[in-house]
Design a protein that fits this description.
single chain, mainly alpha, Tetracycline Repressor, domain 2, about 0% strand
Length: about 190
């Protein structure tokens, strides 16, 4: 009986990159997995072994941003900063990772907010919580119990407000989202 082997991990990145490239040419909605396979030089079965559905590529895209945020936490320039001072550059790194495909990211989010996609919306709440948890960890926030819960709630609001501004601001969206992030963090400093 023939055995099937899983594609190597770098194949997962190539598949995600192929999907993002196709979305940049058309739209996320128009991306077909068979075309992704052709562009990535693999089969549809390879994609299915790595991503059980197209929505899993969206998760992989945000996982990539989470990894970049966590890698940025090791930057020696952040070492002497206190946790509050680390929050801004870390979330900025997260957004910069998504920047090359901002339009596609917006399309992904809009697609997941459609009423017919209730099956992914619950998971999206967990994804937001997970990203905020990694952000807190990378910033070295140490609060506990009720203070931690309050801090998580405030950071979740800051994260969402900044992300929405980054997604929707016309013109210089990077400057607009960074200014908002800086202002919100400054106002929240007593809590954080």
């Amino acid at each position: 009986m023939p055995t099937t082997s899983s594609p190597p991990p770098q194949h997962a990145e190539a598949i995600l990159d192929a999907a993002l490239q196709l979305a940049a040419l058309h739209s996320w909605e128009q991306v077909q997995l068979i075309e992704v396979a052709e562009r990535a030089g693999c089969t549809l079965a390879d994609i299915q072994r790595l991503y059980d559905q197209k929505e899993a590529l969206v998760d992989a895209w945000f996982d990539r941003a989470d990894r970049a945020l966590l890698e940025a936490a090791s930057d020696p320039l952040l070492g002497p900063l206190d946790p509050h001072e680390r929050l801004e550059p870390l979330l900025t790194t997260w957004l910069e990772t998504l920047e090359p495909h901002r339009r596609t990211t917006r399309q992904m989010i809009c697609g997941r907010l459609e009423p017919g996609h209730l099956h992914v919306q619950g998971a999206d709440l967990l994804r937001i919580s997970r990203t905020v948890q990694w952000w807190r960890q990378a910033a070295r926030c140490r609060s506990q119990f009720l203070q931690r819960a309050l801090q998580e709630s405030v950071l979740t609001g800051i994260y969402l407000a900044t992300f929405v501004r980054w997604l929707t601001a016309p013109g210089d969206h990077t400057t607009a989202s960074r200014a908002l992030l800086r202002r919100l963090l400054r106002h929240a400093r007593p809590i954080l």
